[in-house]
Task: inverse folding
């Protein structure tokens, strides 16, 4: 991978003429995304993210940390023990330059022999498992990383609203789609385009069913203004 998301973050952090990212999915047209948004402070974050950060306790694992804005707030403002991980080397370099003490270029599936009290998966973090049929292995891994009494906090969206209605008032879902929340994601930056990758938006009921099937309790913490929500998963 070209790591264009990470490259944009590092350009912004180092003042290397950052430009907006262009994001596109298999069900939506190209859209510009400001890199500066990834560097937002607590007051600039959506209410769902603020709520999640306020619910963090103990040792925290920030999965898919990006530019590290969530980790930075927890480390500096709440004086918490935070481990920030991302598969983007450039994102982790950015986190280190911003002062995050424990930032690692690492896939969550590769973590061994560590336990956490809170696992954060913000900005649709559950989507990183890519496809619904990967969710069981993903949840089992997260479960194995939890201390007794620990919790997983994640946000996502129900994207059913993006599909057209048929004559009966139901939604028209393409026949080649096993789950309507599965998309292909494409990122472009400074004239370069990343190979498309799998991503997933998971509706709350599907998440809840998957959680129960994997020995986790699932609770709806908060609903946002646009089909988004925050959930807590516990042992």
Result:
């Amino acid at each position: 991978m070209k790591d264009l998301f990470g490259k944009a973050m590092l350009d912004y952090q180092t003042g290397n003429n950052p430009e907006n990212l262009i994001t596109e999915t298999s069900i939506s047209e190209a859209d510009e995304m400001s890199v500066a948004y990834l560097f937002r402070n607590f007051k600039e974050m959506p209410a769902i993210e603020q709520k999640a950060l306020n619910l963090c306790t103990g040792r925290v694992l920030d999965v898919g940390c990006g530019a590290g804005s969530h980790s930075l707030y927890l480390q500096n403002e709440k004086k918490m023990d935070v481990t920030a991980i991302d598969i983007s080397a450039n994102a982790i370099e950015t986190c280190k330059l911003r002062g995050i003490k424990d930032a690692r270029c690492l896939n969550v599936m590769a973590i061994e022999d560590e336990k956490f009290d809170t696992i954060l998966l913000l900005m649709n973090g559950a989507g990183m498992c890519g496809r619904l049929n990967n969710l069981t292995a993903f949840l089992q891994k997260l479960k194995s990383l939890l201390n007794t009494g620990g919790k997983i906090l994640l946000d996502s969206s129900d994207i059913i609203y993006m599909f057209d209605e048929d004559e009966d008032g139901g939604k028209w879902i393409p026949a080649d789609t096993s789950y309507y929340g599965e998309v292909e994601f494409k990122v472009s930056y400074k004239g370069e385009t990343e190979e498309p990758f799998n991503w997933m938006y998971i509706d709350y009921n599907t998440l809840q069913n998957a959680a129960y099937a994997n020995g986790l309790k699932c609770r709806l913490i908060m609903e946002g203004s646009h089909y988004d929500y925050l959930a807590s998963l516990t042992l």
About this structure: The chain is about 25% helix and 30% strand.
